[in-house]
Amino acid sequence: MNKAEKFFWPIRVYYEDTDSGGVVYHANYLKFMERARSEWFRKLGFELDQLKQEYGILLVVTALSISFTRPAKFNNEIVVSVEATEIGKASMSFKQDIIDKNNDGDKNKQIMCSAKVKIACLDANAFKPKPIPKKVLEEIKHGRISNS
Amino acid sequence: MNKAEKFFWPIRVYYEDTDSGGVVYHANYLKFMERARSEWFRKLGFELDQLKQEYGILLVVTALSISFTRPAKFNNEIVVSVEATEIGKASMSFKQDIIDKNNDGDKNKQIMCSAKVKIACLDANAFKPKPIPKKVLEEIKHGRISNS
Amino acid sequence: MNKAEKFFWPIRVYYEDTDSGGVVYHANYLKFMERARSEWFRKLGFELDQLKQEYGILLVVTALSISFTRPAKFNNEIVVSVEATEIGKASMSFKQDIIDKNNDGDKNKQIMCSAKVKIACLDANAFKPKPIPKKVLEEIKHGRISNS
Amino acid sequence: MNKAEKFFWPIRVYYEDTDSGGVVYHANYLKFMERARSEWFRKLGFELDQLKQEYGILLVVTALSISFTRPAKFNNEIVVSVEATEIGKASMSFKQDIIDKNNDGDKNKQIMCSAKVKIACLDANAFKPKPIPKKVLEEIKHGRISNS
Questions:
Q1: Pick from C15, C49, C73: which is nearest to B74 by CB?
Q2: Which sequence positions of B are flagged as catalytic?
Q3: What is the CA radius of gyration of chain C?
Q4: Which of A98, B121, D55, D78 fits a 20 to 30 Å CA distance from C80?
Q5: Which secondary-structure segment (H or E) carries C66?
Q6: Which of these, D28, D62, D59, D30, lies nearest to D44 by C-alpha position?
Q7: DSSP one-letter string for C97-141
Q8: In this complex, do A16 and D38 lie within 8 Å of one another by their Cβ atoms?
Q9: pLDDT band at D4 (very low <50, low <70, confident <90, very high)
């Protein structure tokens, strides 16, 4: 199975993202990852609000595991990767990393956190599983993402 | 005109509320103030979700001014006050302070920030002004709030 | 090994916690869980800011896995549980659930989300692992938590 | 007095920014405005973390007033303006608007919210007013911002 290529989304860390420990608050990395997934869908040609209107679906996170390796700080430029790893009938799984853009040296030291995220396609009203629309499936499987 | 008595709501500051400056992130005081207004409505006998279901209204912030005097820090116990200062046909104004619970000394040093908040009553679908339900008006004007 | 008993912390869902999907935004459950862990430490006799001052340590999340079963909505009263499952030299693991307080019926339908959270004890300046202070270890292993 | 030209910063609305009312949560507009001010400083040649390291200063919000006219929704593309209106010895005032990028028609309908924000320059340790560094003052007064 072909899958959409790995996608990268740059994010700047602002004060709102940090906590008094001096680094990004742990829950906020999940926000960064969702921003990147939203942009990944947009790159494939889909707007999440239009998917809701057109197909009556919501894409929601049903499970995730994340490990935090190195903290991001205020003003850091980070990059969030999105890679679809499994596409089911009504669910998808992603591998996502957050990478330190300004750490050019040791590649192993660039990863700040790493997650597996499972998404379910739900009926927007009933909140029950609903098949991913065919057009979306096709685009995910064969779509080409150019990181321009 | 009688108005509901001043109401106080205690809040604990957690990591999520702070930023890397070491203090509560400025926008988060607005969250604290809204929590206190929600509890004020509850004390008067109204649940905001039920107001939406029963009367088809939303209460939204249309304007606010706030001054920040002394910062709150992680783990601080603060108290948010709610005082209705004006009740119109489709709007209300509140005076709200955030008070340092652990500063028992100089009263003037207790106020951390102080705001005036204007709320509009909107039709939940049309997002246009809609009169505040009579029952709510009555309770705000004559209701008694006991800060137990 | 004896461990501190299971602890429960009640939380009310406010507007700030929800998103336009109509339910609590997924990353915000992590905030709820951290609030509960902070209160668990307090119940054991420790304030996180004092631990930093006295021992120079920070307790940070290094990994977590979470599954979301049923969404929480605006105004819901939920309860967050905290249970220490492993205590290492410089790390601890917790099992945490978020429970629907108002669902008294089927116990299985009460759990909204469920997580395993790993915490590391770090030197507050060097951000490197540092042994958990003995006094804290003792309290976690033998402490009694009364959910009054 | 010459002041730095008006500056514009584009922002995309994500799920994290919205609430169950279906629109951007009111406190989150303050985050958008701070992002834009951070980018305005960067455009003038200053990084806020470097200002702290080099000059020992923090720039903090001491007062703001904001009116909300039209709500922003999920997926909206908005633009935040930054205009310095007053530069004092240890404080600055800004006028900031949030503009609907996709509303090309009636100019009056483009403004979603409008704020006046007062910033103080504080000693990063003492949290007391400290003069704005000359180099920063010069850049603000005479700097040219090109909105490329």
A1: C49
A2: 19
A3: 16
A4: A98
A5: strand C57-68
A6: D59
A7: EEEETT--S-GGGSEEEEEEEEEEEEETTT-SB-PPPHHHHHHHH
A8: no
A9: low
Chain B neighbours, 3+ Cβ pairs < 8 A: A, C, D
Q: How many residues does chain C have?
A: 148
Using one digit for the tens of pLDDT, what is the confidence trace for C103-128? 766 666 799 999 999 999 999 989 99
Say if residue B144's pLDDT is above 70: no
Q: Which amino acid is at B85?
A: T
Written as one letter, the residue type at B111 is I
Residues of B whose CB is below 8 A from A73: 20
Nearest to A29, CA basis, from A119, A96, A121: A96
B71 to chain D: closest CA residue: D127
Q: Give the chain D residue nearest B69 (alpha carbons).
A: D62
CB contact under 8 A, A26 and C60: yes
Long-range Cβ contact pairs of D84-88 (< 8 A, separation 24 or more): D84/D3, D84/D4, D84/D140, D85/D3, D85/D116, D87/D1, D87/D3, D87/D132, D87/D137, D87/D140, D87/D141, D88/D132
Cβ of A77 under 8 Å from any chain D Cβ?
A: no
Chain B positions in Cβ-Cβ contact with residue D34 (cut-off 8 Å): 26-27
C-beta of residue B121 within 8 angstroms of C-beta of residue B26 = no
The model's pLDDT over D94-104, given as tens digits with 9 standing for 90+, comes to: 999 999 987 76
SS3 content of chain D, % helix, strand, coil (to 5): 25, 35, 35
Contacts of B54 (CB under 8 A, 6+ apart): none
Q: Measured between alpha carbons, how far is B87 from A142 in angstroms, rounded to an integer?
A: 59
Structure tokens belonging to residue B30: 């607005």
pLDDT at D41: 96
Distance CA D77, CA A64 (A): 28
Give the SS3 label for residue C2: coil
C34 in reach of chain A (CB within 8 A): yes
Average pLDDT score over residue span C71-96: 96
